[in-house]
Design a protein that fits this description.
The protein has 156 residues and is an alpha/beta fold. It has helices at 2-22, 63-79, 93-105, 122-130; strands at 32-33, 40-41, 52-56, 82-86, 110-113, 134-138, 148-150.
Length: 156
């Protein structure tokens, strides 16, 4: 459990640093539609240790989330884990819930999520947590307890 917390913390910190350094620079990413859902996926590090982490964002087209995924993939390679990027094409609560359920079904050890809102995906996240999946928020939390939350201080 401590190892997973350390991996999640290092992973999120690495993602935030890479995202900050990348700024608004545009890079092309390779994404393909996942059969049977509105989620998108990106193949992660081929040298992964079998530890699967799902990265679920609000949508798959906003440059912020694209850049975050790029940083996540880089950190995954460095840490030897696999990150699966999943997101609706546009903000859609039902599709985001489906992404959470798909991550649990795929055997994700942790879900890093930017919730569309505090309540919409809470029940899906509670079920995931009760299955032993660690929850980490990036930018936008839901009303479910998490291992950590990484976000900017928009008021400052």
């Amino acid at each position: 459990m401590k190892k997973m917390k350390k991996i999640a913390a290092l992973f999120c910190a690495s993602c935030m640093v890479v995202t900050a350094l990348a700024g608004c620079g545009k890079k092309e990413t390779s994404q393909t539609a996942e059969t049977g859902s509105a989620a998108t996926t990106e193949k992660a590090a081929e040298s992964g240790s079998g530890e699967l982490i799902a990265l679920i964002t609000m949508d798959s087209i906003d440059q912020h989330w694209v850049t975050l995924n790029e940083g996540a993939q880089k950190a995954a390679k460095e840490l030897g884990v696999t990150v699966q990027f999943m997101a609706p094409n546009t903000k859609d609560d039902a599709q985001q819930i489906e992404c959470v359920n798909n991550a649990v079904s795929a055997g994700a050890k942790a879900i890093i999520v930017a919730a569309n809102g505090p309540d919409a995906i809470s029940s899906a996240l509670k079920e995931a947590a009760s299955s032993g999946v660690k929850i980490v928020y990036v930018d936008s939390p839901a009303n479910v307890e998490a291992e950590a939350t990484f976000s900017t201080d928009n008021k400052a």
